[in-house]
Amino acid sequence: MMVIGRTGRCCLLLLLQLKAMEVPINRPFQVVRPTANHSSMLPVPDGLARLASHPSSIAIISVVGPFHSGKSFLLNALLGDTKVFQIGRKTSPETEGIWLCRTDMIASDGSEVWLMDSEGFFGPGVAESYDAKIFTIATLLGGHLVYPPCIPSRPRPCLHVLVRHSQP
User: Fold this and answer.
1) Model-level pTM?
2) Best CA proximity match to 72, nearest among 90, 89, 87
3) pLDDT tens for residues 88-120?
4) Cβ neighbour number for residue 44 with a 10 Å cutoff
Protein backbone atom coordinates (compact mmCIF):
# COMPACT_ATOMS: atom_id res chain seq x y z
CA MET A 1 0.00 0.00 0.00
CA MET A 2 1.32 3.42 -0.97
CA VAL A 3 0.92 6.33 1.44
CA ILE A 4 0.46 9.79 -0.05
CA GLY A 5 1.57 12.77 1.99
CA ARG A 6 -0.18 16.10 2.28
CA THR A 7 1.69 17.63 -0.68
CA GLY A 8 0.91 14.58 -2.80
CA ARG A 9 -2.78 14.81 -1.94
CA CYS A 10 -2.84 18.49 -2.90
CA CYS A 11 -1.16 17.73 -6.25
CA LEU A 12 -3.57 14.87 -6.89
CA LEU A 13 -6.58 17.09 -6.13
CA LEU A 14 -5.22 19.80 -8.44
CA LEU A 15 -4.75 17.29 -11.25
CA LEU A 16 -8.29 15.98 -10.77
CA GLN A 17 -9.68 19.53 -10.88
CA LEU A 18 -7.76 20.31 -14.06
CA LYS A 19 -9.00 17.08 -15.65
CA ALA A 20 -12.60 17.98 -14.69
CA MET A 21 -12.19 21.41 -16.33
CA GLU A 22 -10.73 19.92 -19.53
CA VAL A 23 -12.77 20.90 -22.55
CA PRO A 24 -13.94 17.79 -24.42
CA ILE A 25 -13.43 17.56 -28.17
CA ASN A 26 -16.46 17.97 -30.46
CA ARG A 27 -18.78 19.00 -27.60
CA PRO A 28 -20.00 22.59 -28.17
CA PHE A 29 -20.63 24.84 -25.19
CA GLN A 30 -22.30 28.23 -25.00
CA VAL A 31 -20.24 31.30 -24.08
CA VAL A 32 -22.80 34.04 -24.78
CA ARG A 33 -26.58 33.80 -24.61
CA PRO A 34 -29.31 36.25 -25.61
CA THR A 35 -31.50 38.07 -23.13
CA ALA A 36 -35.17 37.04 -23.13
CA ASN A 37 -36.14 39.72 -25.66
CA HIS A 38 -33.00 39.33 -27.83
CA SER A 39 -32.03 42.95 -27.26
CA SER A 40 -28.66 42.17 -25.70
CA MET A 41 -26.38 39.32 -24.69
CA LEU A 42 -25.20 37.85 -21.42
CA PRO A 43 -22.00 35.92 -20.71
CA VAL A 44 -22.36 32.25 -19.76
CA PRO A 45 -20.03 31.91 -16.73
CA ASP A 46 -19.52 28.14 -17.06
CA GLY A 47 -18.59 28.44 -20.73
CA LEU A 48 -16.22 31.32 -20.13
CA ALA A 49 -14.59 29.41 -17.23
CA ARG A 50 -13.96 26.46 -19.56
CA LEU A 51 -12.38 28.77 -22.10
CA ALA A 52 -10.27 30.60 -19.51
CA SER A 53 -8.98 27.39 -17.93
CA HIS A 54 -7.77 25.90 -21.20
CA PRO A 55 -3.96 25.82 -21.05
CA SER A 56 -3.15 25.72 -24.78
CA SER A 57 -3.23 28.44 -27.42
CA ILE A 58 -6.40 28.52 -29.49
CA ALA A 59 -7.17 29.58 -33.07
CA ILE A 60 -10.89 30.31 -33.47
CA ILE A 61 -12.75 30.07 -36.76
CA SER A 62 -16.00 32.06 -36.50
CA VAL A 63 -18.93 31.30 -38.77
CA VAL A 64 -21.59 33.98 -39.19
CA GLY A 65 -24.51 34.52 -41.54
CA PRO A 66 -28.29 34.71 -41.82
CA PHE A 67 -30.40 32.22 -39.90
CA HIS A 68 -30.94 28.93 -41.73
CA SER A 69 -28.03 29.60 -44.10
CA GLY A 70 -26.06 26.47 -43.18
CA LYS A 71 -23.58 27.69 -40.55
CA SER A 72 -24.01 24.70 -38.21
CA PHE A 73 -24.19 22.34 -41.19
CA LEU A 74 -20.87 23.72 -42.49
CA LEU A 75 -19.23 23.27 -39.09
CA ASN A 76 -20.50 19.69 -38.86
CA ALA A 77 -19.10 19.03 -42.33
CA LEU A 78 -15.70 20.37 -41.26
CA LEU A 79 -15.77 17.99 -38.31
CA GLY A 80 -17.03 15.04 -40.34
CA ASP A 81 -19.88 14.50 -37.87
CA THR A 82 -23.48 15.59 -38.48
CA LYS A 83 -24.39 15.52 -34.80
CA VAL A 84 -21.91 17.93 -33.18
CA PHE A 85 -23.74 21.21 -33.84
CA GLN A 86 -27.54 21.16 -33.65
CA ILE A 87 -29.33 21.62 -36.93
CA GLY A 88 -33.06 21.53 -37.44
CA ARG A 89 -35.89 21.69 -39.87
CA LYS A 90 -37.91 24.18 -37.84
CA THR A 91 -38.58 27.69 -39.12
CA SER A 92 -37.24 29.19 -35.89
CA PRO A 93 -33.45 29.45 -35.47
CA GLU A 94 -31.70 26.51 -33.72
CA THR A 95 -28.57 28.25 -32.42
CA GLU A 96 -28.92 31.07 -29.91
CA GLY A 97 -26.02 33.24 -28.83
CA ILE A 98 -22.46 32.06 -29.43
CA TRP A 99 -21.10 28.54 -29.03
CA LEU A 100 -17.52 27.25 -29.10
CA CYS A 101 -16.30 23.76 -29.92
CA ARG A 102 -12.82 22.36 -29.37
CA THR A 103 -11.63 20.16 -32.24
CA ASP A 104 -8.74 17.78 -32.74
CA MET A 105 -7.41 19.98 -35.56
CA ILE A 106 -4.10 21.80 -35.14
CA ALA A 107 -3.23 25.09 -36.87
CA SER A 108 0.08 25.62 -38.65
CA ASP A 109 1.38 27.57 -35.62
CA GLY A 110 0.63 24.62 -33.30
CA SER A 111 -2.46 26.11 -31.67
CA GLU A 112 -5.67 24.14 -31.34
CA VAL A 113 -8.43 24.96 -33.82
CA TRP A 114 -11.78 25.72 -32.21
CA LEU A 115 -14.97 26.42 -34.13
CA MET A 116 -17.45 29.15 -33.25
CA ASP A 117 -21.10 28.83 -34.19
CA SER A 118 -23.30 31.89 -33.90
CA GLU A 119 -26.95 32.77 -33.92
CA GLY A 120 -28.10 33.61 -37.42
CA PHE A 121 -28.71 37.16 -38.52
CA PHE A 122 -32.06 38.61 -39.55
CA GLY A 123 -34.09 36.13 -37.49
CA PRO A 124 -37.77 36.73 -36.83
CA GLY A 125 -38.36 39.39 -34.18
CA VAL A 126 -34.65 40.15 -33.71
CA ALA A 127 -33.32 43.69 -34.15
CA GLU A 128 -30.41 44.45 -36.47
CA SER A 129 -28.58 45.96 -33.50
CA TYR A 130 -28.59 42.52 -31.81
CA ASP A 131 -27.29 40.91 -35.01
CA ALA A 132 -24.53 43.53 -35.06
CA LYS A 133 -23.49 42.49 -31.54
CA ILE A 134 -23.23 38.85 -32.62
CA PHE A 135 -21.23 39.93 -35.67
CA THR A 136 -18.91 42.11 -33.58
CA ILE A 137 -18.14 39.41 -31.00
CA ALA A 138 -17.57 36.76 -33.68
CA THR A 139 -15.30 39.13 -35.62
CA LEU A 140 -13.25 40.11 -32.57
CA LEU A 141 -12.85 36.59 -31.17
CA GLY A 142 -12.24 34.73 -34.39
CA GLY A 143 -8.89 34.54 -36.08
CA HIS A 144 -10.81 33.80 -39.26
CA LEU A 145 -14.35 34.87 -40.10
CA VAL A 146 -16.44 32.73 -42.46
CA TYR A 147 -19.60 34.11 -44.05
CA PRO A 148 -20.94 31.15 -46.07
CA PRO A 149 -22.84 31.73 -49.29
CA CYS A 150 -26.60 31.79 -48.89
CA ILE A 151 -29.14 29.55 -50.52
CA PRO A 152 -29.55 30.95 -54.08
CA SER A 153 -33.34 31.35 -53.77
CA ARG A 154 -32.96 33.71 -50.81
CA PRO A 155 -31.62 37.26 -51.05
CA ARG A 156 -28.19 37.74 -49.50
CA PRO A 157 -28.36 40.30 -46.68
CA CYS A 158 -25.63 42.88 -46.89
CA LEU A 159 -22.77 42.88 -44.42
CA HIS A 160 -22.70 46.68 -44.50
CA VAL A 161 -25.90 46.71 -42.38
CA LEU A 162 -24.13 44.73 -39.63
CA VAL A 163 -20.96 46.78 -39.87
CA ARG A 164 -22.94 50.02 -39.65
CA HIS A 165 -24.77 48.84 -36.51
CA SER A 166 -21.61 47.51 -34.87
CA GLN A 167 -19.89 50.91 -34.89
CA PRO A 168 -20.38 53.22 -31.90
Assistant:
1) 0.75
2) 87
3) 666 556 678 899 999 999 999 999 999 988 888
4) 18
